[in-house]
Amino acid sequence: MKEKRERDGFFEYASRVHSAKLTTSCKVLLWHYGYAFNWNEKRPSYYSQKSICSLTGMSPSSYQKARKRLLELGWIIERKRGRRQCILVTPLVGRDDEEVVVRFEDYQSDDVSLDEAIRNLPDEFFNPFGDEGKAAS
After folding, report:
1. Would residue 128 count as lying in a domain?
2. How many other CB atoms are found less than 10 A from the CB of residue 33?
3. Domain hosting residue 18, numbered range
4. Is residue 81 part of a domain?
């Protein structure tokens, strides 16, 4: 029987985050929390705000907004350990962000299938070099 590795739970969680209707900063933060979470022992992420901002490229204000929004939507729970210690964060599966759902529906109406999009491409996409691409004789 195959033994589960520490990150095995992350892949299922990452798939849920990928399809969730959340802002980009919320998804980045969730991916980080999911990656840092110990799925075998159910031990929360312990990274500091400074470390997370450094690793993800987020500004501290974007981090704070995303973290608060994830708490509101039920995607994470926090446990404070002390004034000078990092917050422990456990990732969960929460609700979609209604503001993002509305924007997503607006974009969905314009979506076309991949096959239809390929059929509608101009000829130069199929032969980008034209006659110039032929070797000189």
Report:
1. no
2. 23
3. 8-122
4. yes
| pTM for the model | 0.69
Q: What confidence tens digit (pLDDT) does each residue in 32-57 have?
A: 999 999 988 899 999 999 999 999 99
In a domain, 72, yes or no: yes
Closest among 49, 39, 50, 54 to 87, alpha carbons compared: 49
In tens, the pLDDT along 92-117 reads 999 999 888 877 666 555 566 777 87
DSSP of the chain, one letter per residue?
Answer: -PPPPTTHHHHHHHHHHHHS---HHHHHHHHHHHHHSBTTTTBPB---HHHHHHHHT--HHHHHHHHHHHHHHTSEEEE---TTSPPEEEE---PPPHHHHHHHHHHHTT---HHHHHHTS-GGGTSTTGGGGSPP-
Q: Kindly report the CA angle at 65 between 61 and 68, in degrees rounded to 5?
A: 135
Q: 84: domain CATH number?
A: 1.10.10.10
Domains in the chain, number: 1
Residue 133 within a domain: no
